[in-house]
Design brief:
Helix content is 26%, strand content 25%. It has eleven helices and 15 strands. The strands form three sheets. Strands 3, 4, 5, 6, 7, 14 and 15 form a seven-stranded mixed β-sheet that branches. A six-stranded parallel β-sheet has the order 10-9-8-11-12-13, with helices on both faces. Helix 3 (140-152) crosses helix 4 and helix 6 (215-222) packs parallel to helix 7. 41% of the residues are buried. It binds NADP nicotinamide-adenine-dinucleotide phosphate.
Length: 347
């Protein structure tokens, strides 16, 4: 028997999530029984949508209608271990299919050890791919970006593509996929350092620093009424500014709305853009999507990303926090914009 720590939800966040919303708890981990394995968590991976899992606002996340989408219907109760993607290494096994040293990935949560019984959901990791890359540009992050640009947005050469949350894990890959496809790419991101990285490493054509510049004014200058595809990770004022400048028959790809995830104190929805009439006047489509809808295209997307990454054509960075006790702090970085690329934590 060994002692092992977990992070539990101590109280529901009211407004911006805080470190005090979480608490550490000890549990005992036992030798695996017949048909079980025990794995030690090596990595945690953080996504902004996990903020919604902590809310008690079912309408906002589409649960009451009974049509909760995979990944968005997850809930964490007060006192429960915080759910989240993780990579763990098998340390003891009485399962024929798992051996010490095997790396597995799953929605294991913020815990130092995970028990893998017969019903446990996990996938194996390819040992030849570094874990941060497997969790980032070659994982759900890159695949989400690919589906949004290629399948949902259908961005083609010569078009103008604007990406918000552009220096983030998904946004930076989305913009580069559009650039490789021959599009003119404009990013929206917060801060001079992120702007420089997008211009120099990711080779975006233009970047608007929304913390220093007026996004509506800058988009009007850079792409007046000529955005063919707007890939949105953020919502809020950036979405309204993009709507105002969509081209006729433009496409808005709704990947995420991070500016609203952390702000609902009472579970109500934040207000939407006030200029939706532009969508009618310019015959613009706006489509939300989930990576899980595109299972049949994943092999094609994974192969494309793998080849480009191996050829050094896709810049990416991972922001790696150290130590299990830093899990809440690492998660909070997504909402202050402190993270530079895919936010991970190494145990
Ligand atoms: N549809 C899907 O299947 C799917 C799958 C995965 C992820 N997503 C969505 O994709 C988006 C990006 O996720 P990610 O994992 O790549 O995270 P990320 O972009 O690496 O990190 C979040 C970033 O959001 C920006 N941000 C935070 N609060 C903001 C605010 N109030 N206004 C404007 N920007 C804000 C910050 O960048 P700045 O420094 O630039 O502010 C921060 O670095 C999220 O909305 C997520 O929910 C969707």
């Amino acid at each position: 028997v060994i002692g092992s720590r977990q992070w539990i939800l101590a109280r529901r966040p009211r407004g911006p999530v805080q470190a005090g919303d979480f608490a550490l708890r000890e549990e005992a981990v036992f030798e695996p029984g017949e048909g079980e394995a025990v794995a030690a968590t090596r990595w945690l991976s953080f996504e902004p949508a996990m903020r919604g899992w902590l809310d008690d606002a079912p309408d906002r996340w589409g649960r009451t209608a009974g049509v909760a989408a995979p990944g968005y219907g997850v809930t964490v109760d007060v006192g429960e271990v915080v759910k989240g993607p993780a990579v763990a290494e098998v340390v003891a096994s009485r399962r024929p299919d798992l051996h010490p040293g095997d790396l597995v990935r799953g929605l294991f949560g913020w815990r130092e050890h995970v028990s893998l019984g017969t019903g446990a959901g996990f996938q194996r990791l390819d040992p030849s791919v570094p874990v941060p890359v497997a969790l980032g540009v070659l994982g759900g992050t890159g695949l989400t970006a690919y589906m949004g640009i290629v399948s949902v947005g259908s961005a083609v050469a010569g078009e103008t593509v604007v990406v918000s949350g552009a220096a983030g894990a998904v946004g930076s890959v989305a913009g580069q996929i559009a650039r490789i496809r021959g599009c003119r790419v404009i990013g929206i991101a917060g801060g001079a350092e992120k702007r420089r990285w997008l211009l120099e490493a990711c080779r975006f054509d233009e970047v608007v620093d929304y913390k220093a510049e007026d996004v509506a004014v800058r988009l009007r200058q850079l792409c007046p009424d000529s955005i063919d595809v707007y890939f949105d990770n953020v919502g809020g004022p950036a979405l309204e500014a993009a709507i105002a400048n969509m081209a006729v028959h433009g496409r808005i790809v709704l990947c995420g709305l991070v500016s609203s995830y952390d702000s609902a104190r009472d579970g109500t929805s934040p207000g939407g853009p006030g200029n939706l009439f532009h969508l009618i006047a310019r015959r613009v489509s706006m489509q939300g999507y989930l990576l899980s809808d595109y299972a049949d295209r994943l092999p094609e997307a994974a192969a494309w990303l793998r080849d480009r990454e191996a050829a050094g054509e896709l810049a990416h960075r991972e922001d790696i926090a150290e130590g299990f006790e830093q899990a809440p702090a690492a998660f909070l970085r997504l909402f202050s914009g402190a993270n530079q690329g895919k936010q991970l934590l190494r145990l």
